[in-house]
């Protein structure tokens, strides 16, 4: 089978969930089918963190167009072979109508939380993608539900839910190593690091995380992983009198250390297409506290402390954090999280994706 892959996500972001997803699938495609894979890619893809780790032989790279990325992302892709599969990393469609096209839908964040203009543009772009798709991959049942809410006309297209995985980098360390890391990071083994990981857009509820840790007392430190803090965020942190440590953007290896050193992951997001950080934390034996919304219950099962509803308060979340001082409850969550995380792997995601390609070609 001739397989054509579009690496445009590597040109649209430096790092992120979409890049991780694409990297994990593509490195396995190259491992198993090096002669069958061809890649469309722009020169600026090389600045992406995940792309730097992906080894693609020059012969597998197709000549790129010299149009700018902003235009490339909306232009159709001309596929050399009609009897082939085309899979784009970010919503591009094949020019050739006879090509079998696979679409991956991660979430509906722009449709739910963006400005009216961006919402409209995303709906147009997604509808064009879905109209050309021979099959659709959704990364969670929640995303599939959203897909059929926004685009019920595509209910007849084959839709496959294929969950994301978790990198093998994320592993629990022994007790001594965890204590050593806690002392290195916080200067005191007795302090408790409450970790916040990812973007801090409005739906991510970073302000609620600040309020929550502000209620916990000086023993608790809010650890922040992500882009630079804004002046408004620094003001909120200072006004809430919160102890915090800002780590910036970190490597997978460093994030693994931070999870291992943490008392818990606080993940108060109102909406996720999947929620990779909660899976990473569970794999590392870091208890998870989150809001019962979107895909989070689907991913964590009974292996996390979730609020009773999506309208969580700082008082409710801080009470959940403090409940982890009960060592029996903490140990129960750690064991449940480790067991739950075994259900998800990138190898499994890859195998299910390859099987879906075969289904589409044979249909």
Structure description:
There is one protein chain. With 363 residues, the protein is an alpha/beta fold. The chain has helices at 9-12, 17-32, 49-53, 69-72, 109-113, 116-132, 141-150, 175-186, 206-214, 231-239, 252-261, 276-283, 296-300, 314-323, 327-341, 346-362; strands at 2-6, 37-40, 84-88, 100-105, 135-138, 159-161, 192-197, 220-225, 244-248, 264-267, 288-290, 305-306. The protein folds into two domains: 2-165 and 346-362, 3-Layer(aba) Sandwich (Rossmann fold); 175-341, Rossmann fold, CATH 3.40.50.
Instruction: Please give the domain count.
Output: 2
Q: Label the structural class.
A: alpha/beta
In spatial order, strands of the major sheet run 2-1-3-4-5-6
CATH-level-4 superfamily name of the largest domain: Glycogen Phosphorylase B
Main beta sheet strand tally, sense and closure: 6 strands, parallel
Q: What is the helical fraction, as a range of percent?
A: 40-55%
- The CATH architecture of the largest domain: 3-Layer(aba) Sandwich
Q: Please report the total strand number as a whole number.
A: 12
The radius of gyration over CA amounts to 21 Å
**Low-confidence regions:** none
Overall geometry comes to: globular
The ordered string of helix (H) and strand (E) elements is EHHEHHEEHHEHEHEHEHEHEHEHEHHH
State the name of the first-level CATH class of the largest domain.
Alpha Beta
Amino- and carboxy-terminal Cα gap: 14 Å
Strand fraction: 5-15%
Task: For this entry, give a set of tags.
363 residues; alpha/beta; Rossmann fold; 2 domains; six-stranded parallel β-sheet
Please outline what is shown here.
With 363 residues, the chain is an alpha/beta fold. The protein has helices at residues 9-12, 17-32, 49-53, 69-72, 109-113, 116-132, 141-150, 175-186, 206-214, 231-239, 252-261, 276-283, 296-300, 314-323, 327-341, 346-362, and strands at residues 2-6, 37-40, 84-88, 100-105, 135-138, 159-161, 192-197, 220-225, 244-248, 264-267, 288-290, 305-306.
């Amino acid at each position: 089978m001739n397989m054509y892959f579009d690496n445009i996500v590597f040109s649209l972001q430096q790092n992120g969930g979409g890049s991780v997803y694409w990297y994990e699938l593509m490195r396995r495609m190259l491992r198993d089918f090096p002669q069958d894979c061809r890649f469309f890619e722009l020169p600026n893809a090389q600045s992406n963190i995940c792309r730097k780790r992906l080894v693609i032989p020059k012969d597998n790279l197709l000549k790129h167009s010299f149009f700018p990325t902003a235009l490339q992302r909306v232009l159709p892709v001309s596929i050399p072979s009609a009897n082939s599969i085309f899979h784009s990393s970010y919503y591009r469609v094949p020019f050739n109508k006879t090509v079998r096209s696979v679409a991956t839908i991660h979430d509906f964040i722009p449709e739910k939380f963006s400005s009216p203009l961006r919402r409209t543009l995303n709906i147009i772009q997604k509808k064009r993608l879905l109209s050309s798709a021979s099959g659709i991959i959704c990364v969670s049942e929640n995303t599939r539900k959203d897909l059929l809410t926004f685009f019920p006309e595509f209910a007849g297209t084959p839709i496959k839910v294929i969950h994301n995985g978790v990198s093998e980098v994320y592993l629990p360390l022994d007790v001594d190593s965890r204590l050593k890391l806690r002392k290195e990071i916080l200067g005191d083994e007795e302090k408790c690091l409450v970790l916040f990981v990812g973007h801090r857009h409005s739906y991510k509820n970073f302000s609620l995380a600040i309020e929550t840790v502000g209620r916990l007392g000086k023993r608790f430190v809010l650890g922040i992983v992500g882009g630079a803090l804004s002046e408004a965020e620094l003001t909120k942190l200072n006004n809430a009198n919160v102890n915090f440590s800002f780590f910036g953007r970190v490597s997978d290896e460093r994030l693994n250390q931070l999870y291992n050193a943490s008392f818990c992951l606080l993940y108060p997001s109102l909406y996720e297409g999947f929620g990779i950080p909660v899976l990473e934390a569970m794999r590392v034996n870091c208890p998870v506290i989150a809001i019962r919304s979107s895909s989070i219950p689907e991913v964590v099962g009974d292996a996390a402390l979730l609020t009773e509803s999506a309208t969580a308060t700082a008082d409710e979340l801080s009470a959940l954090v403090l409940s982890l001082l009960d060592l029996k409850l903490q140990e129960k969550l750690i064991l449940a999280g480790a067991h739950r995380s075994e259900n998800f792997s990138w190898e499994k995601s890859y195998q299910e994706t390859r099987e879906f390609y075969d289904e589409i070609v044979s249909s």
